[in-house]
């Protein structure tokens, strides 16, 4: 299975600022994804991070708010821009290995004050 | 659209079997997954089943799939305190696409 790490593991940020979350996979993977898990809720897909092209965003998420980079097959970043308290969530990246196994990082716990 | 439902809570005595249920609406689902989330942790892939299978067993875990009723279950035999967690079922349409998650079931073990 793929081993995925995220940085930072948690952060407390002031409203109006931005935070970039890093996701590193220990092997090359075809697909990487970013999810949000709001307090006490399930996971919602933000976007698919495409290597070498723009990310594919889900309904309700836009590039200006959540810019994503994926410079190679093992690394991706998600930026949460112009944060508000409603952005307080756990942000998880995942990676698809093979055709059906999707593994998750430990998550980044973000609190916006 | 895709919709995945689970009951929110389940309490089981230590040593008993736990059965966590999940229903989904999209008959095009091809892969169905079970993930475990312990407090303060990310998601751990427990097991998955292809839609052309009815059952899959992996040590203490048994997955049953009823395609006609669009019902998926996860049975944990001999439930232990370490099994306390939130369990999410998830589906994907082609196995190479986004996952749609259920609401999660919080499993509590009673000593």
Rg of chain A (C-alpha, Å): 13 Å
Which band does the percent of strand residues of chain B land in? over 45%
Q: Tell me, briefly, the overall form of chain B.
A: globular
As a percent range, the share of helical residues of chain A equals under 10%
* Largest interface, Cβ cutoff 8 Å: A-B, 23 and 21 residues
Helix-strand sequence of chain B: EEEEEEEEEEE
Low-confidence stretches of chain B: none
Summed over residues and divided by their number, the pLDDT of chain A gives a mean of 94
Largest sheet of chain A: 7 strands, mixed
Characterization of this structure:
The complex is a heterodimer of chains A (113) and B (111). Chain A is mainly beta. Chain A is 0% helix and 53% strand. Chain A is built from no helices and eleven strands. In chain A, strands 2, 4, 5, 6, 9, 10 and 11 form a seven-stranded mixed sheet that branches. A four-stranded antiparallel sheet of chain A has the order 1-3-8-7, with no helix packed on it. Chain B is mainly β and 111 residues long. In chain B, strands 2, 4, 5, 9, 10 and 11 form a six-stranded mixed sheet that branches. In chain B, strands 1-3-8-7-6 form a five-stranded antiparallel sheet, with no helix packed on it. Chain B has strands at residues 4-6, 9-13, 18-24, 31-37, 43-50, 55-58, 61-66, 71-76, 85-92, 100-101, 105-110. Chain B contains no helices and eleven strands. The A-B interface holds A 1, 4, 30-31, 33, 42-45, 48, 58, 92, 94, 96, 99-107 and B 31, 33, 35, 41-45, 48, 50, 88, 92, 95-96, 98-104.
């Amino acid at each position: 299975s793929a081993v995925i790490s995220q940085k930072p593991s948690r952060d407390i940020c002031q409203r109006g600022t931005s935070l970039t979350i890093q996701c590193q996979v220990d092997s090359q993977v075809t697909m990487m994804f970013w999810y949000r898990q709001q307090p006490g809720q399930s996971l919602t897909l933000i976007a698919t991070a495409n290597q070498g092209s723009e990310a594919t965003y889900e309904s309700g998420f836009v590039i200006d708010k959540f810019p994503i980079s994926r410079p190679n097959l093992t690394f991706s970043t998600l930026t949460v821009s112009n944060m508000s308290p409603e952005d307080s969530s756990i942000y998880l990246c995942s990676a698809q290995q093979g055709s059906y196994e999707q593994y998750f990082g430990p998550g980044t716990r973000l609190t916006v004050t | 659209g895709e919709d995945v439902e689970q009951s929110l809570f389940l309490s089981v005595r230590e040593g008993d079997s736990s059965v966590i249920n999940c229903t989904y609406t999209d008959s095009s689902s091809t892969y169905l997954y079970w993930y475990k989330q312990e407090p303060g942790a990310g998601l751990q892939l427990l097991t998955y089943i292809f839609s052309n299978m009815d059952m899959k067993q992996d040590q203490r875990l048994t997955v049953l799939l009823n395609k006609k009723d669009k019902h998926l279950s996860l049975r944990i035999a001999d439930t232990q305190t370490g099994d306390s967690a939130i369990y999410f079922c998830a589906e994907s349409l082609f196995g190479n696409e986004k996952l749609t998650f259920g609401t999660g079931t919080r499993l509590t073990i009673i000593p």
